Amino acid sequence: MELDGRKNGQTPATKIRVQDLSVVYGRSQALFDVSLEIRAHSVTALIGPSGCGKSTFLRSLNRMNELIDGCRTSGRVDLDGEDVYGPGVDVVTLRRRVGMVFQRPNPFPRPIFDNVAYGPRLYGVRDRRTLADVVEWALTQAALWDEVKDRLGTSALELSGGQQQRLCIARALAVEPDVLLMDEPASALDPISTAKIEDLIQQLKERLTVVIVTHNMQQAGRIADETAFFLNGHLVEFDRTDRLFERPRDRRTEAYITGRFG
Ligand SMILES: Nc1ncnc2c1ncn2[C@@H]1O[C@H](COP(=O)(O)OP(=O)(O)OP(=O)(O)O)[C@@H](O)[C@H]1O
């Protein structure tokens, strides 16, 4: 099934439309009827206290939740107007279009080059020149090329934590996704590496759409166009980041951003 068309009357600016999304793990419900729209070429931050469902929401956007035993999802997630849970959707293609970067850098214990070439190889690229070009392009996009171009054959595990995380971003970018899901990508990093990742995210949104979970409200304020505040599995408020932080409409949002709980 093609996922590219703009259907169901969505405006071109809507990249992902979530309607009445609920997620259950076994007997415990993690998300309750969440609806929101994510604009193309924007950065959307998901904030809220631990356990409120941010990662669950993120994983439901590219069906990563399905890898968890006992996890059931209902509702609708449209990507460019097509339901990603619809019959006939190829999950491999979906996850190629909607890539993911995790909290802890998780490079493979393989050379830097192979880490980035992994996805393109998986999707059938064999030509060495083409692979080399893709690797250079993705590492440049991830602001890592200059630091590693002379040691592409060394193990990714020899890189610093911040470099490893940019490598993981390069690995995700190498298959040219149009959405990048990031689950607290900078929480394990020092302030300088964090600033690099934040700069990178700002640049990436020219190419793609970013959805990021963060515990760091200053970070959401710096990088996100829109912010969603979750509490106990409910989406409490979703608005432009400046409005959500300066004039929250819900007192629970206000309590959270002013540090009164969470
Ligand atoms: N694999 C799983 N199996 C069972 N329950 C899970 C699983 N993952 C998450 N949950 C539960 O779902 C709820 C939401 O968890 P989730 O990880 O989505 O929250 P979160 O807001 O991302 O939390 P944190 O900020 O601590 O990462 C929690 O009650 C959690 O215990």
TrEMBL record:
Taxonomically, the superkingdom here is Bacteria
Pfam families listed in its UniProt record: ABC_tran
SMART domains (UniProt xref): AAA (SM00382)
GO BP: any one term: phosphate ion transmembrane transport
Q: PROSITE patterns per the record?
A: ABC_TRANSPORTER_1, ABC_TRANSPORTER_2
Q: Which residues form the ABC transporter domain?
A: 16-257
Among SUPFAM superfamilies, the record links this protein to: P-loop containing nucleoside triphosphate hydrolases
Keywords from UniProt, A to Z, are: ATP-binding, Nucleotide-binding, Transport
Coiled coil located at which positions? none
Recorded GO cellular component terms are: membrane
Which molecular-function annotations from GO does this UniProt entry contain? ATP binding; ATP hydrolysis activity; phosphate transmembrane transporter activity
Spans through the membrane? none
The protein's name is Phosphate ABC transporter ATP-binding protein
